[in-house]
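Check this:
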Amino acid sequence: MLDDLERRKLLDRTVIVITSDHGMEFDENGLGFTGHGTAYSELQLHTPLLLRWPGKSAGRVTRRTSHNDLAPTLLTGVFGCSNPPSDYASGHSLFSDAEWTWLIGASHLDFALIEPERVTIIRPNGYEVRDKDYRLGPHRAVRERASGFGGELGRGPCPYRDRSPRSRLLPRRREPGDVARVPSVLRAGRRGIWDIAPFHRDG
């Protein structure tokens, strides 16, 4: 492709983007997750992203980025869009220093709040908290942060299920301030899930 663009004298005025829509997991963590769309693990979420941009020197971006950053990168850098990216996108230009401290992931059945050190998966019947290696972790941090929402997230006992293929039903006792069900948030739809983000953004 590069040879063809160069032959047609288009290489120096063409932006090339190479990426993927998902990663691929082969049970590297020993949790039974394979393929894609089966977990919100780093192995399934991490994708390659390669840009060749005429006039810009080679470099490596090590901060956390997202596919959401592609639209503002192209609109500002190629199409000359001058209004702030926040007017039309949730991402930032890849040539800025902006870094994501959290991301929202979603499947047909659930949502996930993805942070560098943990993943909080919100399901119709409860939630899971997993660490950066996608192993089930303690819930105290989520319970303490969510308690500020009062009754919006709902409370009460809820079976807590490890969704890995080697899962078993884990009963959980009720504790003060426990977050067990999220019916009102789910009834609010996608916007309700986004409203959870600020409660993790601060720390």
In short: The chain is about 20% helix and 20% strand. The first helix runs from residue 2 to 7. Residues 141-203 have pLDDT under 50 and may be disordered.
